[in-house]
Amino acid sequence: MIILLLIPIAQAALLSSAITFRHGARASYYKYSWDTATWPQGLQELTPAGMRQHYLNGVQLRQRYIIDQSFLKPNYDSTEIYVRSTDVNRTIMSAESLLTGLYPNGPKIANANLQKAVPPIQINGLPDIQAKLGNYALPIKRQPIPIHVVEMKHDTMLYAFGDSCPRFDQLYNDIPNTQAYQEKVTEYINSGLQAQVNEIFNTNASYEDASNFGDTMVCELFDGFPLPEGVTYEIYMELIGMYNYTNTYYFTPEGAALSSTEFFKTIIQQFNMTILNEPTVKLSLYSAHDTTLAGFLIFLGVWDGWNPLFASTLIFELYGENGGYFVSIIYNDNVLTLPGCVEMCPFDEFVSIIEPNLIKNMTLGCQKQKPQ
Q: How far apart are CA 292 and CA 295, in angstroms?
């Protein structure tokens, strides 16, 4: 959950914000024979705990941007906010949950229009329904907000490590041939961890299999299920370390640039338009994945090596003071400092640090390269 931070710049005015976040707690990706967890909505889906996480994120964003700073209007205004999600149930539902906390009060209908606000069909029990609604358009004062989605095979902004970028597939497929990967596999075998895993799970687990076991256990522990019999905390942490690696090993400098370019181009454009007083939103929200956030953090050179937790939040804020503009970056309550800059990084320096590493043409950058 987001906690308010004191921005270390006197009287600076918040002008624009762009936030990307990982979806909330989910069911595991895979079902194993040793797996005792039950997931009512199926594998990979957002859990009720994940919904609550993002509702609370939304409540805190409301506190930060509406109550404390009067940055946004109290109720939804389509000119102020833009929301986008990857084309995945759990990210779309996470965005919905967050928005419920950010804008808890929906619109009302004028008295003169109450009798008109019905569809051209017969509605059973209409008087009772209308009485319960009162003047609110929807039950529980709900405020619908559009969440924009791009089909995965075209999403190079929030999911460039998927089918949208064939070059990324090449980088991914090359990983097993790298010395770093082979050293990890050798360590997994020679340390005796593979033998322990095979005995515990009665299987022949590759390095990738074992890292996926770790991810499954993260989901199960979060939802209250115990560690599998025979798995000590030390073994669990070894598997989590492996998952930290396999979930990010393709973010070489080129991989990180492919996964981050469209996102950072969009943020820079939003902030530039704000500075130039051109029409743009005040707040943009992007609902994505742990891999998405890890790629961005690695691209910026500020990743701490740990896979982003459920509902992790990465905030970019533009501030203005005395004709100058500054960018603050906050990741899960921690103010980040870009290499070569300070906490409140002057906007021009922020751009000069990021732009040289962006891919100028993503269409060309995502094309497969011919073997040399």
A: 5
